[in-house]
Amino acid sequence: MNLLRKLIRDIIKSKGQFITITLVVVLGALFYSGLSSASVLLDDYTKEYYDEYNLADIWMYYSNITEEDTKGLDTLEGIQDYELRFTYQSRTDEKTLKIHSFAEDAKINKLHLIEGELPVNPFEIALDYEFVLANGISLGDELKYKVDGIEVSYKVTAFIENPEYVTKIPEDGNNFPEHDRYGIGYVNYSTIPELSVITGISVEYDEILFKADTDTDLNDLISSIEKEIGRSNDGYLFGYTKNLYPGYSMLQGDIEQFKNLSYVFPVIFFLVAALMTYIAMKRIIDTQRKQIGIMKALGVKKGRITRHYLGFSIIPCVFGAAVGGIIGSVLLPDVLLDVYSETYDLPGIHTRVIWSLVIPVILIAVLLGMIAAYLSCRKILNERAAASMRPRLPKAGKRILLERSKGLWGRLSGKTKIVLRNIFCNKRRALMSCVGVMGSVALMITGFAMNDSTKALIDRTYDEIYQYDGIVNFSYFTSEKGKVKFTDPYSVANPEGIETSYVSTLGFEIKDDEKTTFGSIVALQDNHDFYRIIDSEANELAVPNDGFIVSQRLSDLYDLAVGDDIKVKLTDSIYGGETISGKVKAISEQYLSQEIYCTPDFLENMDLELKPLTMYIKVSSDITLNDIKDFYDDVPEVDSVISKAEQKSSVENYTKSMAALVGMMIIGAMLLSFAVIYNISVINIMERSSTLATMKVLGFGRKEVASVFEIENLLLTVLGVIGGVPLGLLLMKAVFDTSATDDMSFPYVVKISSIVISCALAFGYTILSDIPVRRKIKKVNMTESLKETE
Amino acid sequence: MKNIVQFKRVTKEFVNQEVKVKVLKGIDFDIKEGEILLVIGSSGAGKSTILNILGGLDTPTDGEVIVENQNISNYKEKQLSEFRAKKVGIIFQSYNLIPNLTALENVIFGSEVKTGTLDAREILGKVGLGDKCDKFPATLSGGEQQRVAIARAVAKNPLMILCDEPTGALDYETSKAALKLLEDLNKELNKTIILVTHNLALSPMADRILTVKSGKVESIEANTTKKSVAELEW
């Protein structure tokens, strides 16, 4: 009991250090629990959300299909449920609504009702809530939209969300949601017959949703469904599994990214905290040698003394980890969810403390703290009581290397000599201080580099790789009055004044025992003018005629080197799951997707029928992109025209959410650095308090006394910064590698200014930490500190 | 002999946890150039406080301390540290050497604050450590360390050398050697030495003896029967 009181008093006495150690533990716990909570939270939430509203496993599209056609499905293995629906687009000049029919007893992709009542009568519509918010729509409003050029009027009866649209990415190309102009609507199936009367569309259904039995291989299932009502049926268009479904796969990627990041940063924070605990404890225990001796002499058992000193680390660790863990698991996901709500619509998600994450964090923090504390007091505890009651023999000064040069050494002032010997005679402590500074600088550099890299990623992609001015997306097919016509892009007339290049894109899947990656094969005719493929040194690569160029990430993930064979399965249903292979001819640098490049000829030689549904355009000076957009406006085969600038700005928008996360990391790194450097300074001055008093007595001015400590701190910072920069670059690579997903990988880019700022901050903190040093020098009582020999 | 220091009605109060303790209750005395002044008294009498004020380590609550016609009692911190640098050399019971400097470097370091200092190596030779110039304090015995401390105070060539129980941590023989050293320095270099001790047996080596009791000067007397350190026994 008395020892506990002593413990608390001791802690209060060194409160600055304990506060900073606690702060570092708080930060580590905060980031770990925050990021992993975010991933657990999203993971749990999406599982539950998908489960409750029964997200489909497979989507299949037809030009027309009837209930009669689907009879054969009942005998297929692996299908739990299937439902038919009709999907069509309704537009105004600016806005597009993708409208699905739903049955009242729908079991798949059920609607999550936010407000109102689900439509029962024809032309009542349930709208997605983001579209509602972005357009200021109220329940009961009447919306006039055109279907096939004929105006249809809807009455809004409900606001909903649906698990199949956790992110609502417009089909016409931009990869990011634009709620003001693109929304999702659901109408009661009773609308469809009436719609056919108005518009003349004579289609019953055009889409089937499947829910598979658990443990069914979805790709196998899709093939067997195709066999039943697919390839032989003229109306079959294409189908895909949820792994390719944009909302689903993007969100899974982000969840994974949180999970990856949640390890890297906390590990560093915890190690730094352990290091700081070790340094601080060593100092405290050194000053308490005599007390330890007395306790031992009084017969206090070694175990009890050990426990007492372990308490020094347990208290800040438990407290810090609990506070950080709890705050982190609430605050960080809250911020992240807020940011991610730009992209994802997850109704009803809320943060909570996930104890199964917080408690392990506390345990790990305590364990690390205890190890650090134990290591620091082990030696003294093993001394005999009598020995530890005697003041420790002062550490003998030692000669350092520099003294070999008599002339130089002789010319140094006593102050400088003290500083140099302080550093070089306590190499271990100096090294630890340096490591602390190194870690801090490295973390800051990594934080800033993430910011730089995100910017570079966008710039390189849109300025160096994409050379076109815009993209024209053709629709796969057009339907008029229910008659489907597959698009032949070459037959579509183009305006004057543009250069064009047709590109076919084939979805693929590559997998090994552990993982599966989806991407696309881009068949480029002549890449130079429209699309530059670059390698890691930014050299331009020519598209090979006899093989593929694969992305760096694919090459890393699947261990593919130049000369290896790569085998991928085509996922577009028109290829019927065919697997193709070819030689890897080069590795390319790409950041926003996993693409494989080759020439159309190469694919056609494999007897693949190519559908160039994308056209790159370059605009001459006589025509503007708006003119081009106007030109294609009335062309039914053209889905959308997107300028490169629009693409770029929507990605920039998306990376804003990354920026929030990066910002938090930078703040964390800055706090950590301050805590480390402050601690080092405080310990430094405590260890030298008698030197300090002696100097004062000898008549050195306050500034001169302070300069001994300031120079020492500064030198340690210089050494730390020198080591910290390369460490930061290594850490940056590690963090980038772990946080890369299939949708986004980060180039190793860090601006010189980021490095300079990180180093400058480290020096700034050192100078800031000199303030307590100066205060202490002013306060030091010369007469007393000189009498204490301890 | 001229007076170099005058204490005029010097008082000192310490406030410790709201309790005021008056340690000096009006001290008057002066110090003559080149003398050995012994300040004696029992523990808590106030002798160390006198030394601290004299050495510019502390300021009096009231009264004046005139050193070479300058009143140092109301000096600001900066002036005080300059005063310490220029005028005094202090020797403590616990030598207070800088552990990371060699004997010679410690002596030189002590003189860095001032001009007109003496040759460090020569003074170390005088205190008998000519062959230990390059040793670090931790490798020296207590007596040797104290001699380095004395050398440091002397080499700086200050106005006066203040010693606070300089032999407190030393054994009999070593103490005698250290005192002998101070005595020699006083003779050869005509240094003013103020020696604070509770050891009455040292009285015969002094020129004058100031006895302090309960914060007041009990007596100040000239020693008519001065003996050299070698003759002392305790």
The CATH H-level homologous superfamily of chain B: P-loop containing nucleotide triphosphate hydrolases
H/E series of chain B, N to C?
A: EEEHEEHEHHHEHEEE
Euclidean distance between termini CA atoms of chain B: 31 Å
Q: Shape of chain A, please?
A: elongated
Give start-end ranges of low-pLDDT stretches of chain B.
none
| Quaternary structure of the protein | heterodimer
Give the tally of structural domains of chain B. 1
Estimate percent helicity of chain B. 25-40%
The end-to-end distance of chain A, rounded to whole angstroms, is: 27 Å
Biggest sheet layout of chain A: 9 strands, mixed
Strand order of the largest sheet of chain B: 6-7-8-3-9-10
Taking Cα atoms only, what radius of gyration of chain A do you get, to the nearest Å?
34 Å
Number of separate helices of chain A: 22
CATH architecture title of chain B: 3-Layer(aba) Sandwich
What is the number of beta strands of chain A? 24
Overview of the molecule:
- The complex is a heterodimer of chains A (790) and B (234).
- Chain A is α+β, with helices and mostly antiparallel strands and 790 residues long.
- In chain A, 51% of the residues lie in helices and 19% in strands.
- In chain A, β13 (477-480) and β14 (483-486) form a beta hairpin.
- In chain A, α2 (15-52) packs across α8 (302-340), α6 (246-287) runs parallel beside α9 (355-381) and α13 packs across α20.
- The longest helix of chain A has 44 residues, at 644-687.
- The model of chain A has no long low-confidence stretch (mean pLDDT 83).
- Chain B is of the alpha/beta class and 234 residues long.
- Chain B has a single domain, classed as P-loop containing nucleotide triphosphate hydrolases (Rossmann fold), CATH 3.40.50.
- In chain B, 29% of the residues lie in helices and 29% in strands.
- The radius of gyration of chain B is 17 Å and the shape is globular.
- At the A-B interface, α12, α19 and α22 of A face α2 and α3 of B.
